[in-house]
Amino acid sequence: MHIVVCVKQVPDTKVIKVNPKTNTLDRSSAPAILNPYDAHAVEEAVRLKEQHGGKVTVLSMGPPQAVKAIKKCVEIGADEGVLISDRAFAGADTLATSYALTKAIEKIQKKEPISLVLCGKHAIDGDTGQVGPGIARRMEIPPITNVIKIENVDNKESKVEIRRKIENGYEIIQSQTPCLLTVEKEINEVAYSPMPNMIKAARYEPTVWTVADLDDVDKQQLGMKGSPTIVGKMWPPAKSEGAKLIEGDAKSQVKELVSAVLEKRELFAQKGGK
């Protein structure tokens, strides 16, 4: 099996701030990390490799420092990593990103056929979940989203059976391979990396491709030129007002609570009528 995992380096959203002047994410305010969902995708690919044999290649698009995310994937157990990095990719939305990654996958596939493409469910900095299905559409392979378990892989019949999360439970789907899977965090627990993997990752230098290294690229579909969507504005949510503590016995508390709700309701009604 040859599994390609698409990963992204993202700012840690637990600590990132919004610049009050530009209303954009201040990426310098937070450390860059491997997108958590992508880490689970890499872990699952490594487990499949251990069960069925084969190879795991990770692919990312980003600035030169994104090699750190690829090194982290090698630490988890990936065999190789490719970074596509070029100013022409800057400002890409999900449509342009899926186009660029597809072109890179096509080049990887010319060297070695691909059995599966794995992606995280979504990136925590954008939360769209569109890049994976976009790649599948361009490659003309089946996309299966929200995967929580890979039940079975049949390499002889070129089939995979997976369990995917749906609103009221889960469903079992069988697909021909190659196909693309986007995975949930619950698909596995990312294991602690063994020392040999850590040493390999520290020494590893990923392959870096520019636009010139890719074949048959339409530059009008890259970066901002190929991005029909933009983020017009971004701002942190307004802080809520201080809470009021209602005291007394149950009867008096209910009375005061109802009175407060009705007062707010009247206030909203008045504002809505203006």
Automatic annotation (TrEMBL):
PANTHER family: ELECTRON TRANSFER FLAVOPROTEIN BETA-SUBUNIT, PROTEIN FIXA. InterPro entries: ETF_a/b_N, ETF_b, ETF_beta_N, Rossmann-like_a/b/a_fold. Residues 22-217 form the Electron transfer flavoprotein alpha/beta-subunit N-terminal domain. GO terms for molecular function: electron transfer activity. Pfam families: ETF. It comes from the Bacteria. This is Electron transfer flavoprotein small subunit. It comes from Anaerobacillus arseniciselenatis.
